[in-house]
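User: Can you predict the 3D structure for this chain?
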Amino acid sequence: MQITCHLPRQHLSPLFLSAFPLYLAHHSTAVPHKTHFTMDEQGEQKGPSVSKILAVVAFLPVGGTLLLLSGLTFVGSLIGLAVATPLFIIFSPVLVPAAIGIGLAVTGILSSGAFGMTALSSLSWFLNYIRQVTAGLPEYLQNLSDKLGHKTKEMGHEMQSQAHEGWAKPSKRALAGL
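Assistant: Here is the predicted structure, written as structure tokens:
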């Protein structure tokens, strides 16, 4: 069995939640809005939890203060712009070329930095590539020296055998034309 009770509640938009105290002060005659809270069999109310209510109550002053500060900052910016606009118009023959020059200088500095970073990354890639290629170089040189040593011993044995037999028999290389 569920019991439904209708409680009047003032309508609050989530956008105006941070300005809750100001909203209540100026709109105390707001149109009532019916919110449905259901109650279970034990008579406990199902609705927003206590932690959610406390979070809203705790953050209302913080949100209101931040909204006030953002409004003051906006008004200050508008006043500063209103004061500075005539100065910009009066000094525009000097300021416009200066702004163009500063813009070109900043563009040059940023592009030189980008070119430098590109050069450094290319150099880093090249050095890593050389390290990878030369990582197998000692093994390759060892294999090459082993092969050369083996061939040298082979040639030395062949020359010894030819020296013992004499030059009567032509060697395999002589027959091959070498």
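The helical segments are 20-26, 50-90, 92-135, 137-165, 172-176. The first strand starts at residue 3 and ends at 10.
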